[in-house]
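Example for tutorial group B:
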């Protein structure tokens, strides 16, 4: 009996996921509109993508929503700290809340770029993203 040959990778289109990664990276630095365009492209192509590129689209969609929610939480906490600081005149609670909120929003931005870079590396190697639903990388 002969051993079956290992399955060869089926060629999948890597251009659109690469475009979405590029729109995310460019949009986070300049205008948020390109990030939203990238999100629309990811949603539109997820259904027709092959199994490897589907993981990238899922990863990109998850990255967008996780970034938005954590960034908004950071901004709300930072604004609450700012209001407390202004109204209570250098409140001992307000300043730490501002630091936590704005620092958290900044860390979310760094996390966003790291996730996009990791996704681009897997895409360049023509590999599926191994953990598209993971919280970290």
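The residue assignment follows.
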């Amino acid at each position: 009996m002969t051993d079956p040959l290992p399955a060869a990778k089926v060629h999948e289109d890597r251009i659109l996921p690469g475009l979405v990664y590029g729109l995310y990276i460019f949009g986070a630095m300049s205008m948020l509109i390109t990030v939203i365009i990238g999100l629309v492209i990811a949603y539109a192509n997820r259904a027709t993508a092959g199994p490897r590129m589907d993981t990238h689209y899922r990863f990109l969609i998850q990255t967008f929503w996780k970034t938005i929610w954590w960034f908004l939480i950071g901004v709300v906490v930072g604004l609450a700290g700012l209001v407390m600081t202004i109204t209570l005149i250098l409140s001992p609670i307000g300043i730490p809340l501002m630091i936590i909120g704005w620092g958290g929003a900044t860390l979310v931005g760094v996390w966003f770029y790291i996730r996009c870079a990791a996704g681009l590396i897997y895409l360049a190697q023509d590999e599926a993203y191994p953990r598209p639903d993971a919280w970290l990388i």
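The radius of gyration is 20 Å. Compare this with the pattern of hydrophobic and polar residues in the output above.
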